[in-house]
């Protein structure tokens, strides 16, 4: 009965019910089908998927694993197209135990390289013909960027001795990107990809002395997930103590130029990058909001020195090399200050071990702590509302809140042992359409507090939220063109529920009234929600389906989306549309 209650929301779709299933569910009156999944062809002439054994050469031509961020980029001559363009997709991780039947049938180096090449990014051309979307086979834009792809470092830390290794004494040329979580797009049509949990990829002992000891400890080094260090020397911190410093950056990729070298933009700082939300400030400068997704880490903002000039497209990349990175300090009176991470200012001086801006950028976490940045409940995705200019940041959860001595309960992190997370609204000065995103002071408010408002302590939702409409563990965010916020979750499995995608208004009577649009199959979180410019197509990524405790290739908790006894579950990017062809929402 609750689901039929007249609602204050502007979102009129029928809600999906809470639950947990081997299949996905989408709102009645919509279709939602896979567009591309792990192992599908990306590069022209790609090898067909063979799940028997790992093959890094084949993987380097195929769609990667662990799809997260999704960007739809219309072609440059048709900037408003909602039926043809490029999809750029991040691949965050490769779950070997769910990928191959016989991972031990090849030498461990080969298997490690297949895991390495399953991460990074994919670029595919997509088109909607005859009422359905497909990838364009053999497109010249089809490209894999992997953990082995050469890329350039730029900005203040590029070329610094702490980025030099035995293979690259210049400190300027890196092999690969991995742990690619969420991201963003720039006004000039490139993609920003966040390197997040890079500690998982390195092995060997963490140095206990020297300049990298504290740095590597703060980045969580030592909690290794992949065994690559045993087979690929650069992943062994004892042999190459500087290699980890070449990861944990934001990578800029130009999907429209398949030959362009990706660029790691060091001016945006080094931490566990979740996302990179860009907006053009009222002054014309580029502003990028950046989350560092770990319990007790901070929210950052980058402001370019120069202004965005879309007539000089190729020069805009330099905006990401020269600018000021700041960390957010949330005050209990509802104000927020942005504290600049500039070498030589405040505590960022030689006495504290910083000898240059490169040191500040490589050790952002330490710099932010010294400045007094607010430790948050895992800042994940950030997104600016295209209509109001207000900015939303998802704090996914933090069970250490109130227990860890550096993470006291405070105004911006109001719940001890925060299991359900919350969403914070940042309010730059100015009016809609002319917000001062570069201002040094903002206001902020709590937008919603996750959990079941009917039972969970401290949950705060709109009173009309239905039994199916509340959410927990907000992670990925996007906006439709009308300025409605869509929130994807990561962590409802621990409640015995599937993760989902929820829509809500951010203003008016339906403010923060979340409604469930999509529910993922078991084991999966929902990532990369992204609308076409006309809102008629929604792309979303189903990440790590069937990956629950004890899941293996032979016994996953679901074989979504193929349901073939010969195939494991495959992470996939989905296309959702309304059956009547109207805008979603
Ligand atoms: Fe990759 Fe923070 O989620
Ligand atoms: Ca995330
Ligand atoms: Ca987003
Ligand atoms: Ca997540």
TrEMBL record:
Pfam families reported in the protein's UniProt record: PhoX
Q: Which residues form a coiled coil?
A: none
Q: Sorted alphabetically, which SUPFAM superfamilies does this protein's record hold?
A: Calcium-dependent phosphotriesterase (SSF63829)
* Superkingdom: Bacteria
Q: Which PANTHER family match?
A: DUF839 DOMAIN-CONTAINING PROTEIN (PTHR35399:SF2), SLR8030 PROTEIN (PTHR35399)
Q: What is this protein called?
A: Phosphatase
């Amino acid at each position: 009965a609750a689901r039929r209650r007249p609602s204050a929301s502007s979102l009129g779709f029928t809600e999906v019910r809470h639950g947990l299933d081997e299949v996905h569910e989408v709102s009645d009156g919509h279709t939602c089908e896979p567009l591309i999944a792990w192992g599908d062809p990306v590069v022209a002439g790609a090898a067909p998927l063979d799940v028997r054994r790992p093959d890094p050469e084949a993987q380097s031509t195929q769609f990667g694993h662990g799809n997260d961020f999704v960007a739809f980029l219309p072609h440059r001559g048709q900037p408003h197209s909602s039926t043809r363009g490029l999809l750029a997709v991040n691949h965050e991780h490769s779950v070997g135990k769910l990928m191959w039947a016989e991972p031990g049938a090849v030498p461990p180096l080969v298997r490690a390289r297949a895991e390495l090449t399953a991460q990074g990014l994919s670029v595919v051309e997509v088109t909607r013909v005859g009422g359905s979307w497909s990838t364009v086979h053999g497109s010249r834009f089809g490209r894999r960027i992997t953990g082995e792809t050469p890329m350039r470092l730029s900005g203040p830390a590029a070329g610094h001795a702490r980025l030099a290794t035995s293979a690259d004494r210049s400190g300027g040329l890196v092999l690969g990107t991995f742990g690619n979580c969420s991201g963003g797009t720039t006004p000039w049509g490139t993609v920003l990809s966040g390197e997040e949990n890079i500690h998982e990829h390195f092995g060997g002992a963490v140095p206990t002395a020297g300049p990298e000891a504290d740095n590597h400890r703060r980045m969580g080094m030592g909690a290794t997930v992949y065994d690559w260090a045993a087979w690929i020397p650069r992943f062994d911190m004892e042999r190459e103590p500087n290699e980890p410093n070449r990861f944990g950056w934001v990578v800029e990729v130009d999907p429209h130029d398949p030959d362009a070298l990706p660029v790691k933009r060091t001016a945006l700082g080094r931490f566990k990058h979740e996302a990179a939300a860009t907006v053009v400030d009222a002054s014309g400068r580029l502003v990028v909001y950046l989350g560092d997704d770990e319990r007790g880490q901070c929210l950052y903002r980058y402001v370019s020195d120069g202004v965005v000039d879309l007539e000089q497209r190729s020069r805009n990349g330099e905006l990401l090399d020269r600018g000021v990175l700041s960390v957010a300090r949330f005050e209990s009176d509802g104000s927020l200050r942005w504290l600049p991470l500039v070498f030589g200012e405040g505590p960022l001086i030689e006495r504290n071990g910083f000898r240059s801006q490169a040191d500040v950028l490589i050790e952002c976490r330490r710099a932010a702590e010294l400045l007094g940045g607010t430790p948050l409940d895992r800042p994940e995705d950030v997104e600016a509302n295209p209509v109001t200019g207000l900015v939303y940041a998802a704090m996914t959860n933090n069970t250490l809140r109130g227990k860890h001595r550096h993470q006291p309960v405070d105004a911006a992190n109001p719940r001890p042992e925060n299991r359900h997370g919350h969403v914070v609204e940042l309010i730059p000065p100015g009016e809609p359409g002319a917000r001062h995103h570069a201002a040094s002071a903002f206001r902020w408010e709590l937008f919603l507090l996750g959990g079941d408002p009917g039972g969970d302590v401290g949950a705060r939702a709109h009173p009309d939220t239905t039994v199916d409409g509340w959410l927990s563990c907000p992670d990925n965010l996007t906006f439709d063109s009308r300025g409605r916020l869509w929130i994807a979750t990561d962590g409802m499995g621990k409640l015995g529920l599937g993760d989902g995608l929820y829509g809500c208004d951010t203003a008016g009577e339906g403010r923060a009234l979340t409604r469930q649009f999509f529910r993922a199959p078991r084991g999966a979180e929902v990532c990369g929600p992204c609308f076409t410019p006309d809102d008629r197509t929604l792309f979303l990524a189903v990440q790590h389906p069937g990956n629950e405790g004890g899941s293996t290739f032979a016994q996953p908790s679901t074989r979504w989306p193929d349901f073939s006894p010969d195939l494991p579950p495959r992470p996939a990017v989905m296309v959702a549309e309304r059956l009547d062809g109207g805008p979603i929402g």
